[in-house]
Amino acid sequence: MITGGCGKIGILIACSLSDRYAITLLDLYPPPPDIHLPFIQADIAKIGDIRNLFHGHDTVIHLAADPNPQASWESLLPNNIIGTQNVLLAACDAGCRRVILASSIHAVLGYSPNIIVCPEMLPRPANLYGATKAWGETLGNYYAYQRGLSVLCVRIGWLKDPSGMAPGDPDLDLIITPQDLIQLMQHCIDAPMDIRYGIFHGLSRNRHIRFDIHETRNILTYNPKDDAYSTTRYNYDILLRRWAERIFRALCTKLRNRK
Length: 259
Known about the structure:
This protein is α/β, with parallel strands linked by helices. The chain is built from 8 helices and 9 strands. The strands form 2 sheets. The protein has a 7-stranded parallel beta sheet with strand order 3-2-1-4-5-6-9, sandwiched between helices. It has a two-stranded parallel sheet with strand order 7-8.
């Protein structure tokens, strides 16, 4: 079961892994017309809507949330706080084996850029969104050690396709590419059940490391293939196009000013 399964990440995972697993999408909104997977429409903020939906599912990938780093508390409370509690409770009551909890690198984005952050360090969110993700990690710890679920919290970085990267882009160290994210989710699903709980940074094999992925690689046997910094070398056409657009806008501004 993938909650938030009709969002960008949910569709990516579902379409990439549907040949390997029997996948059901759960979302407040229906999937695109070309997605032909089992779908359940429900609101995770309402426990009555989802309480009985997880029976028969081995693993839950919990993606449903307000993903906006600038989201208001009024939106974060039902979607990120109450919704996460409802999903973990329903999965636990249904006898699910594991919940893969989509946390975010925003849970630790408050650390200084010159500090290498390891998963065992205390959360340091830079916004309310990151704080809700840090709370979800703690809630997952409770369900793992007090209720018997296996809970893997993945601090997902900035999902970006290599074709959209260019030299000089900010936050290249935060990137995880689609192929690396798919591999990571597969390793989370297949990870041994003796991994009761863990927090793992979900990033690609980027040359400049700000958030350590050694535990992700060693414990989950994750082997990322992409390096955002190397990829940008081959995307100078994007940079040239951006420069051309800036020059064009500057020229247009000068011509308007002359008039």
